[in-house]
Structures are given as structure tokens and as C-alpha cells.
Prior knowledge:
Chain A has helices at 2-16, 24-35, 40-50, 54-63, 83-87, 90-100, 144-167; strands spanning 75-80, 115-120, 132-134, 137-139. Chain A has 168 residues and is α+β, with helices and mostly antiparallel strands. In chain A, helix 1 (2-16) packs antiparallel against helix 2. In chain B, strand 14 and strand 15 (372-373) form a beta hairpin.
Amino acid sequence: METIRKFERVFEIIDQNQRSAARLIPILQAVQxxxxxxxxxxxxxxxxxxxxxxxxxxxVATFYSLFxxxxxxxxxxxxxxxxxxxxxxxxxxYGAIVKKLELKDGEDSTSDMLFTVETVNCLGACGLSPxxxxxxxxxxxxxxxxxxxxxxxxxxxxxxxxxxAHGA
Amino acid sequence: MNGALVFIDNKEIPIENEQNLLELIRKARIDxxxxxxxxxxxxxxxxxxCMVHVxxxxxxxxxxxxxxxxxxxxxxxxxxxxxxxxxxELLLANHSQNCPTCQKSTTCQxxxxxxxxxxxxxxFKNQLKEMPADESSPSIVRDPNKxxxxxxxxxxxxxVQSVGAIDxxxxxxxxxxxxxxxxxxxxxxxxxxxxxxxxCPTGALTPKSEVDEVWxxxxxxxxxxxxxxxxxxxxxIGEMFGLPPGTTTAGQIAAAxxxxxxxxxxxTSFTADLTVLEESNEFIKRxxxxxxxPQFTSCCPxxxxxxxxxxxxxxxxxxxxxxxxxxxxxxxxxxxxxxLKVNREDIVVVSIMPCxxxxxxxxxxxFESDGVRDVDQVLTTQELGRMIEEAGLHFKELGPxxxxxxxxxxxxxxxxxxxxxxxxxxxxxYVSEKLTGQKHDAYEFTxxxxxxxxxxxxLSVAGKEFTLAVVSGLGNARKVLENIQSGKVHYDLVxxxxxxxxxxxxxxxxxxxxxxxxxxxxxxxxxxxxxxxLHKSQDNPYITELYDTFLGDVGGHKAHELLHTSYSxxxxxxxxxxxxxxxxxxxxxxxxxFGTSCFLKGSQKLLRDILEHINxxxxxxxxxxxxxxxxxxxDKGPTIKIGSxxxxxxxxxxxxxxxxxxxxxxx
Lengths: 168, 667
């Protein structure tokens, strides 16, 4: 029923934006908030509903780095690589995360789709550098050890939730 | 503003309705280079090749700067010359370097510009990251390694053709022009008109070549290779050999084809004459009965695919006549085997067409009988030109030869099929005599002629009023369809050709950029018409004989079998069904159509109701629900498919009833 709910939500999003092609970006943002990425079929559907070509929707979706056409993990780790964070060793942090999550070359998500890691250009939290954001939570003054601990905490929390769900 | 003077390189040039400096500079006979400027498209200002210096303004792009009185413009300062060179060098540094083997070699504007600007070496290291070319389409090859990102193709596809099959994607150095989701061109809504390839300044989009296959057939002694030459080819191919546009070279084409090794040379204008009889009779029958009016012409395969994708509700308005190319193929395979005493499968029909979509049409599954294709190969005018070059023939010096009979005999009506308005006029020449039962000496119907993309004509024939629309360009066709749908206009007959100006402006024609070329080609066809002995398809003696000895009645059984076809709606993008809810194994599939037509007729509510019903009845595990982008019967939407049953005009009640009937009423 999850797919149904999400698809219903796409209708709502399109309606809320008056089926206007000029509102394409807010529509895509809302769709991505729902799906955590932009699925191809949904983009084709959005294009049809707005009366524009799927190729233009694809163009917009690939132009902005905010949009993603690949499914992302439940926890999206964004490591800041702006000037301040870079100087304070953000790439070392990134490397530590990749190692911790056992990601192979070119992979950015774990196979269980729990984590996705990427770099961003500046989070505007230079005072906290090096910084990262996990979903909406900001972490600052990080070290490779601290990052590893944060990941462990999340994994533990998830395992709990899982067993709770099974228990219920 | 008009009449005011602008100084271009110190020369006084008066403004006369020019919208931008570029037009004015070109009027001053200075050929400012551009990639992205075309008078028929919106102004884009991307290529920066038309930068000029304007006193008091500095450097500005001429294409997007309106002229103002007393402006002082310099087009050739040292700074500008240096900049132009750098732009071209940078483009070359990011461009495939295999010019000698490129299809566009010698007609490529990048190549020409590099030569013109005297660029003998590129100072920048080549940065091209080789990407695979897309050869999936039967009509067009897209080679991203040769793209200069001028956007001409993107704009002509969306602005002129209203299709939008390709667009820019990604950004910065990664920018490419690509179909949606990076799919192959044959998987998307491309109608194969090839206007993108016509306008592409480089070899990034080119008509797909079938030259090798044709040579192979010619060299195979067991094959009888017959050619059919479309009308528009004869007034354009000469351009490749230094003749002015519009020069009629039908005789030279026949001579060249014979010299190349074709066994028989026929004329598609002959089957155009045949189309006139079949299509006019269909029209008379339909207009008399008030049945499916307006009737749309069906000669243009890009237009047909356009209707199949976007306006399936109008499919039954299309004439059921096959295009002249396909009528020829079917007849040739049916008749020539016995006449030439060869096996059917040893006859190779090669069309010479001004068109890339004809390549697609020839490959449509319906145009085949007993495993033998009706038309085997389709060459564009350009490809025939290349074969003539390869054979070392001096085209201009060839003595004209004649086409073979009977399929080489045509009337002027069959020849004017090659330009916008020609099909309508040919039909009128027939209908006017058929309805009055009288022969007329006059044969020209100039009211359907002209250059505008949408033309209307009202005519009175035998006391009956007919309203015609003559349309070229698919964007214009869309406008006309919308107006018909909203009841704003009424027509009896609508002629549509996908390429602006008709087939003479097709993407298979020799590369041209001056819009005047189309006018000259059209003029050439009307002149051919005047030069011919006969002007009305019904006067073609070989057509009469064909009906007498082989086809029987016009519109009769045999004619229907060989000369007519049917259409069905088609998906714009393949494989884009959306899974809404999946049940366990062996579940029943329910697909709700979300094509434009069904969508407007309420498929959204229908899907909601179905989902609710499934939810309430607890059937989640036993059905797969999908949103599908258009399947059949769109005129009777909203449509859903349950199992293998299609339910038209579906309501919530009908859907629930059908779900029950599938044995899904109970948990």
C-alpha cells in the first residue's frame, strides 16, 4: 500500500501546483521528498500531466545537483567539502566513511540501502568545520573516529527498531 | 525605426523590419558566422560566434541585439577575430577528429568555419571523452562526440515539430543532447522526421545510411534491384553537383541509377497517382456520408506516427491509403515477380526518398507479406548523391534517360505530391471531375498553394462547398488538431506534411540553410507539372490499365488488400509502466491508462476508486495494479485492462463489476 500512497501523493503534488509547467522544480522537489529520489516512471508521468516532453523534465532533473535519479539510502550522509571543511580534512572524513561502510569503487550506497554518502560544496556551517549532515541533522568538528561512532549509533538504532517491529 | 540607419563597418544600412543586428549585418552582405541562429527558431544566443562591437555598448551578440538608429557596428575588429578563432578552437578541442569519415564531411559548418577562419592547428589538448553513438533509430544516427551544443535540434524538435524528443541533459562539461532518461532514439517519441539532422551544423545528427546494403544488392547477380524515385528528389539532387536548387533532373537520375546498376527505374509519382484515385474515392464516400470528416492525408510517415502517439482519437480520420512508397512496394512485389520472371524474394525494392521517416515506414511490421518486405531499402536524396559520386559519374553531363514502364509513367498530379499543397491539389483535380462528371481543361488549383504553415481554402465543386486545410510542420498540425477538437474550425480535408514546406524540405534532401531553397524546389515541381503531358491522375493510362487488368475497382477488394492499411495507437515512451501495487504470484494484472486522453477523461479518479475497492475487499495480494501510458482505444477512454480484457469507457461500477468477474469478489 506504500506505493499506492506515494502515487496518490504525486497526484496531490501536481494538483497543488496547478498542473503548471512553470512549477516543475517545486513539483520535482516534492516528489523527491516523497520517494527520496526521482523514479523514471514518475518523471514520465509528471511530464504527461504537465503537457511537456519527458526529455525536458529529464533535462531539469539532471541539471540540478539537488535532484537524484538514483535511489538513495534511508540515511543520506552529506560530507561538506567547502573550502573551510576541505582545509580541515573533510576528504579524510569522507574516506573514513567509505571505508566504514565498505563501499566499493564508484558505489555511494550500501547494499542494504541504509546509507548513501556524498559530498556537498558548502553547508554554510564553516564555523563547525569539518561538518556533515545526516538527513536533516548537522554534525560538526568531526574526526574519523566520531564519524564512525555516529554510523554505529544509527546501525544500532535501526537494529532496535527492526526487532521492535518484529516483536509487535 | 524603419528607414533609420545603422553603420555596419562604416557602411550605412537602413533598418527594414529587421529584429536583430544579425539580420541587418547579413543584409549588408557580411556573412557573420553562427551555429545557433535560424530565422525559423527562437533566438538562443549560445554559440557566441556572432559577437560584434557596438560603439558605446562593447561586445554584444548580434543575434540578440535589436538594431537602433545611428548604431555603429564593427564586425571584424582584431579582438572579434581572435575571439571567433578561440571559440572554434575550443569546439574542436572537444570534438571528434575523424572528419574524413564523417557523414557530414564537406557540408559540416564547423569544418567550413575552421577553414574559413584559417585555423590550421588547435592550441588546446583534445578533451573529448568518447561516448557511444546511438544507432538504434532506423532513420537517424546521433553521435554525441560531434555535438557543439548549439541546441538547434532541440529547438526545431520542440518549437517547430512540437515533439521534444531530445533535450539538453546534465550540466557543464557533461552536457549532452539526449532523449529522455538517456534512452535510445527508437524507444521514445521521435517521429523520425529528421528535421534535427537537417538543421544540425555538424555530424552529430545525420540520416542513417543504407548505401552499403544497396550496393550489396546491386552486386548480387541473383537479385533484381528496382528503384522508385520520389517526386521531391528530382528538384534537389542537382544541388549536390553544382546545379541551382529547383533544377529538374529526373532524366539524369534515371541515367545515373541505370549506370549504377539498378535493373529497373520507376517513379513513385506513379503510385502517387494511384494514391490520388484511392484517397479521393475514400474522401468522396466519407464526405457524402458525413463519415469521419475531416479526412487527413496519410502519405507522411512522421505525421502518421505523430497521430498514433498524440492523437489516437483521430486515427480513424486518417485516410486508410498507404503512402505512395508503400503502395509501390506492395505492387512491385506482387506484379513484378511474374512480369520479370523472378522469385518474389529476389526482387529488391529500393526507394529514393527526400525523407528519413520513410526508412522507418518501410520497416513497419504491417508492410510485409509472406516474410518478404514490400520495400527493402530506403535511400535519401543525399545517399543517392553519394552513390553517384562513388560511382564516379558526372551527374551534370549525364544524358537524360527515361523511366521504365509501366510504373515510370506519371502525371503532373503525382509529381506535385512532393511539396506542401500538392496532395490536396492532386485530389481536387480528381474530385472536381468525378463529382461533376465533366472533363475540365484547367487543372491548377492555386488557392491551396503557398508557403504558410497553415493554409485554408474554400472551394465549390459541383455545387458542394469544401473547406480544406493544408498544413506543414507538426507544430502547425497540432494547432489545427486542437482547433478541430475544440470546434473552432471545420474542415473536410486536411493535408499534413511533417516537414515545413513538405517533402522538398525533407531531412534526406541535400543540406541547405537558406529558406529560399525550398521555394525554388517547389517551383521546380510545379514547372515539372506544367511540362508534363498529363496533369490529372485519372488520365494516367497505365493507372487505368492497372485497374482493368489487375486491381479491379478503385477502393475494391484487391485494392484494399494491397493499397490500404490500418493504424493503432502507440506509446510515446516504451517500458514506462508504473507499478502501483504488486500482489503475490499469479495475481491478476489491472492496468489503468494514463495517456493524455484517458487522463483527461478521469482515469485518476478511476484508479483511486479501484485502489479503494481493492483495499476494502482486502484483495491487495491478488492483484497487480499498474498505471500505463496509453494503450489502445483512446477515443473511448478512460480505458483499463483487467487480465487480458480491455474495458473502454470505464466507470468505477464497470471496473468493480469486471474485478468481480475475474473471481475476485470475495475474500
